[in-house]
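Crash report, auto-generated. Payload:
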Amino acid sequence: MERVVKLSRFTQRILWWELFIPTVLLVLGVYHGLLQTLYRAGIIQSTSFLGLEYYQGLTLHGVINAVVYTTFFAVAFGNALFIYYLEKEPKPLWNGLSFGLMTLGTILAAIPMLSGDASVLYTFYPPLKAHPAFYIGAALLIVGSWVAFFNWIPLYLEWHRENPDKKIPLAILGIMATFIIWLVATAAVAVEVLFMLIPWSLGWINTINIPLSRTLFWFFGHPLVYFWLLPVYIMYYVMLPKLSGGKLFSDNAARLVFLLFIVFSIPVGVHHQFTEPGLSKDTKLLHSLFTFFVAVPSLITAFTVAASLEHGAWSRGARGLFSWMFKQPYWDKDKYLFPYLVMGLVIFIFGGFTGIVNASYNMNLVVHNTSWISGHFHLTVAGPVILGMLGMALYMMEHISGRRCPWRWGAMVFPYLWTIGLAFLSTGLMIGGLHGEPRRTNLGITYLNPQSDLYRPDWETWTTITAIGGVILFIAALVYFIAFFGTLIWTKAGDEVLYFPTSEPLHEERKVAWLNQLAPWIMVLIFLIVVAYTPAIVEVLENTYANAPGYTPANPLPQLPNP
Amino acid sequence: MERTERYIIAGSLVALAVLFAAVLYASQVKGIEVPDCITGVEPYKEGSLQKISDNHYQWFVVARMWNFEPAEITIPAGATVDIYLVSKDVVHGFQILGTNVNLMAVPGAIAYQRHVFNKKGTYDVLCHEYCGVGHQQMHTKIIVQ
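Recovered output after restart:
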C-alpha cells in the first residue's frame, strides 16, 4: 500500500476551493478562446458577441487562463506537496490569508474586466489605462501567492534541521525553485504596478515612463512562463516515471534542471523587446544569448524523462529501439494522469523549438507580434502547462474529496482530443503568422471580411484551420469539465487524503551538496540579473525623452486628471 | 548522472552554440540586425517623407489611434529608406509585410530601421500591437514604382 497523508478539515477545504475557483473561471476563459478563433476566421464579423466585446473577451481569456488559473493551481499544488512529501502542514492562518487575498484580488480584477473598464489585455501595456481595481486586484492575487510561499519557507528550513543528511525530496526542491523564480520576477512587476500604474490610474500622477514600464513588465513576463512550467516539470520527474512503471533515470540531473532554471529564467526578458526603441542592440543580443542557456535544462529534461519512460517499458518487457514508445499505459483509465503528462511532453517538443526561433535575435523580426507567437504560446502554456495542471487538479480533487471521477474514460480521452485541437490551432496560427497575420486583432471586421478594403484572402486557409482547432479544443474542454465537476457531486467513496504517485531513482546516487542547496544558485541569479538588467534599465531611463499620459481603448484623447 | 546524460548535456550545448553562431553570422556578416536605440534624432510630432537623394529617403512616421501619418508613400524601386517611428498616444506596432521591418512604436522613444526596397509593388504595413477599439483597421501602404 502506498503512503497516503490525512488532511485536517481546514486544509482540505482550502485545497478544495483553490482548485474549484479557478476551474469555474476557466469555463469563461475557454469560451473566450473559442470565440477568438471564430472572430479571427471571419465567422463572427462584429466588435462584440453576446454582450462581450472582442478585446474584453481576449483580456478575460488571457487573465483567467494564464494568470488566475495557473497561480491558484501552483499554490494549491505547492501546499499539497509540502503536506505529502515533508508531512508538514502549512500554518492554517497564513494559508487562509493567502487564499483570501488571491480570491479577493481575483474578484476585484474581474469586476472591471466584466464591465468593460479594463480591456487592456493580460499584458496591460500602458499607456492604455484600466480601472484601478484591475491593477489592485492583480497585486492582491500576487501578494496572496507570496504569503503561501512565505508559509512554506519555515517548513523547508525545519525539515533541513531535522534531516541534515538526507536529500530534500525532489518535488520540494522543484516547488521551491518555482516560487523563488516567482518571487524575484513578481518583485519587478510589483514595482511597475505599485509605483507606476496604480497611482497613475488613480490620477495621483499624470504621466509615466513607458519604456521603463515595459522593461519591468518583461523582467517578470518571461520568468512567468517558468512559473507555469516548473510545476509540470515536477510532475514529469516525480510522477510520470512511476505512472509508466519505471524509475527516474537520474535524480541528480533532475535537481540540476530545477537549479538551472533559478539561474537562467530571469535575465532574459529583453528578448520580448527586440523590435522596440529605448534598448540597445548589445543588450538585446546579451538577452538572446542568455535565453539560449535557458533551453539547456529543457533539453536535459527531454532526455531524462524519455529515458525514464524507456526504463518503464523495458521493465515490462519492451525490447528494441522504439517499442518502448508504444508500450506505455496510454489507454489505462486508472492511470489517466499519464496521457496528460506524456501528451504535454510531445507538444513541448514543438513549443520548445519555436521558442528558440523567437529568442533568436534577428530571426525574431520575422515573427514578432504575428500570430506565430500565439501559436508558439499555445504549444507551451496551452500544451504541457495546462494539460499537466488540469490532469493534476482532477487527480488531487479525487483524493482530497474522497470521490472517484465518475467518467474516467472522458478524463483519459480529454488530453488526446486537446492535443488534436491544439495541433490545428497552432498550425493555423503559426503559418498564418509567417504570412503576416497579426496576433491580438479582431480580424473578422477587416482582414477576414470580404467586404473590407483590407481583406486578405491569403490568410483564409490558416484562420479556418485555427477555428477548426478552436472548436475541437472547446469540445475537449467540455469533456474535461464534465469529468471534473461530475467528480465533485459524485458519492463519497473514501477518506479525504492526499496521495501522489512517486518515482524512485534508478540508481541510488550520492548526495551532491551543490545540488541540494538553493543559496549558491540564488547568488548566481542575482549576479546575472545585475549583468543583464543594469544596461537595460540605464538605457530606457536615458533614451526616453517624454513620459506618457493614459488612454482608454476607445478614445484617442489623453485622460489627464490634473491638466 | 550517467555517462549518456553527460553526453546529452554536452551535445545540447554544442547544438545551441551552432544555432547561436548562425544568429551571429546573420547579424555580423549578412547585416540582418534588430533595431538599435536612436538618440541623435530630435523627437518630432508631424509625419513626413523627405528625399535626401534620388534613391535615399527618410520616412518620419507618426503612429496614432488608428492610422499612420503620412498615410501611403510612393518611392522608386531600389530606394534606401530610413524609417523613423514614434507614437502620439499608445503603443503601436509597425510591420511591413514581406520584409524584415518589424518595429514597435513606444511613446517616449524613437524606433529606427533601414530598408532597401528593391522589388516593385505594393507593400502592406500593419499595426500588430493592440491599440484600442480601432486596432484592426490601422494600416498603410508603401508603393514602390
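Post-recovery validation: The helical segments of chain B are 3-28.
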